[in-house]
Amino acid sequence: MTMLKSLPYHPYKISKLKDPAYSAGYLTEIFEEEEGDLELKIMRKAMRDVFEALGEPNMSADDAKLHLEKLDALLSGEGSATIYALASWLNVLGLKLTVAVDAGETGEEEDSASVAELAEVGNV
Questions:
Q1: Domain ranges across the chain
Q2: In terms of Cα–Cα distance, which of 101, 98, 79 is closest to 87?
């Protein structure tokens, strides 16, 4: 009898995150997961995974290290400057922050756009 081998999850997840639309949807889901009570550890891990997929292959080791240090610094910051720093950090990966209308628990979005479409992935 042959046992099926399972694939390690992390390499699979990184391979999926190489698609910018998938990464945008993934981060959107992470940010919306806890309805405003997002754990910093979960957000940091998700953003590092997206960086591993989209940023790291396109940067030198030194640039990658600096970019991750910048992420850690901006996630420990407070105030409105943090959101601009986060937007800039994501922009290097070819992603951008957007705002979408939340129809609430009872309503549906007028346009049933996918999470990836709402994330408006693109190089800016």
A1: 18-98+113-118
A2: 98
CA dist., res. 4 & res. 6, Å (int)? 6
Q: Which residues contact 98 (CB under 8 A, 6 or more apart)?
A: 118, 119, 120
**What one-character DSSP code corresponds to residue 7?**
P
- Give the gyration radius of the chain's Cα atoms: 16
What distance in Å separates the CA atoms of residue 73 and residue 8, rounded to the nearest whole number?
Answer: 30
Per-residue pLDDT of 52-72, as tens digits, reads 999 988 899 999 999 999 888
Q: How far, in Å, are 41, 61, 72 from residue 65 at the CA level?
A: 19, 6, 11
> What distance in Å separates the CA atoms of residue 109 and residue 101, rounded to the nearest whole number?
8
| 38 φ/ψ angles, rounded to the nearest 5 degrees | -70, 130
pTM: 0.66
Query: Distance between CA atoms of 26 and 88, rounded to whole angstroms?
Result: 18
